[in-house]
Amino acid sequence: MTVSEKPQKAVILSAGQGSRLLPHTQDRPKCLLDLAGRSMLGWQLQALAAAGIREAVVVTGFREQLVEQSLPELTPPGMRVRTLFNPFYKVADNLASCWMARQELDGPVLTLNGDTLIEPGIVKRLVEAPAADITVTIDRKASYDDDDMKVVTDGERLLAIGKKLDMAGVTGESIGFLRYSTRGAAAFVAEIERTMRTPEGTSLWYLSAIHRLANAGTNVRTVSIEGLDWAELDFPADLEECRSIAAGWQSRKGSAARARA
């Protein structure tokens, strides 16, 4: 990847309430739930900044004013963070959030699901992955459930992505973190523009657009983040897992600080 194609901006999709986490999300979006002293959004911004990302656009919806108010405290030094409100968050899925942010997808850029907890090493691995129009981070495990965003690959090439794939061909799961080159971002924007004009457009995940692009010949590749810490926050049980991971990071940070003292 050339220096000019290295992403400097990330779009974080954080519009939803996270109703499956109720009552934890009764009065705040799940991106602001506390995970060992720092919110999901706070951990995401720290991970992005540590890997050299200097700008983030947070797509908001539910209780957007709380996200706005949190930014001065959450924004890492040297990073610019701003919000983009999605007024359709109650009636549309995250493809609509990408459509709302389409003008931000104007060059080398990352997109990150607002409920994906990641360590800085995952950002570094994605940014440094071999050049491709679109790169999808994936993990692998022994088995997959109905809620996993499963993938089928041929080597690193993405063949299919979705929740309802034939289990016999599944080779991993998407963690909801992607990189786009300038050409890949343009192809993605064109596809979501087309999809939003169809009757089912507002009910689709944005990864359905990635599936169609891969099948239409766009160079969509995958990069494995196996062995690195991440978690998805959808259900109450996930909240405990995320908090455990974040507490481990805090503990290692404290040990490193004591060692330097």
How are the SSEs ordered, and which strands pair?
Blueprint: E1 9-14, E2 34-35, E3 38-39, H1 40-50, E4 55-60, H2 64-74, E5 80-85, H3 94-100, E6 109-113, E7 116-118, H4 120-127, E8 134-139, E9 150-154, E10 157-162, E11 172-180, H5 182-195, H6 207-215, E12 220-224, E13 230-232, H7 236-260
Parallel strand pairs: 1-4, 1-6, 4-5, 8-12
Antiparallel strand pairs: 2-3, 6-11, 7-13, 8-11, 9-10, 9-11
What can you tell me about this protein's structure?
The protein is α/β, with parallel strands linked by helices and 261 residues long. The chain has one domain: Spore Coat Polysaccharide Biosynthesis Protein SpsA, Chain A, CATH 3.90.550. 33% of the residues lie in helices and 25% in strands. The protein contains seven helices and 13 strands. The strands form three sheets. Strands 1, 4, 5, 6, 8, 9, 10, 11 and 12 form a nine-stranded mixed sheet that branches. It has a two-stranded antiparallel ribbon with strand order 2-3. Strands 7-13 form a two-stranded antiparallel ribbon. Strand 4, helix 2 (64-74) and strand 5 form a beta-alpha-beta unit. Helix 1 packs across helix 4 and helix 5 packs across helix 6 (207-215). The longest helix is centred in the last third of the chain and has 25 residues, at 236-260. The radius of gyration is 17 Å and the shape is globular.
Q: What is the general shape? A: globular
H/E series, N to C? EEEHEHEHEEHEEEEHHEEH
Summed up, the domain count is 1
Q: Determine the CATH topology.
A: Spore Coat Polysaccharide Biosynthesis Protein SpsA, Chain A
Structural class: alpha/beta
Classify the helix fraction into a percent range: 25-40%
